[in-house]
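Can anyone check this?
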Amino acid sequence: MKTLKTLIRASVCAGISLSLAGCLTSTPQWDAHFGETVQQISASQVLNPQAGTNADPVTGVDGGAAAASMFRYDKSFSQPVVVSSPFGVGLGSSGSTTGSP
């Protein structure tokens, strides 16, 4: 009889503690810091935050080379490379060589 009362008391205490744990929330703490990680990661990816205010022209590439590279870049998207089989990369042609000396 004594163990039954102890079990009943323990189950009542466990039920009360579980019901009170359901009322406790940490959501306001999380909401206060929502988005900070994304802002920190985005800021760490910027090499020079003041680059927009720099009015100096870019040096090192002449206009003809830049125009040619942009033309090739645009052309690469209009005519994509066709891969016939991903398993035959670097194996040469698919023709048979049997019977040739």
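Reply from J.R.: I decoded it. The mean pLDDT is 78.
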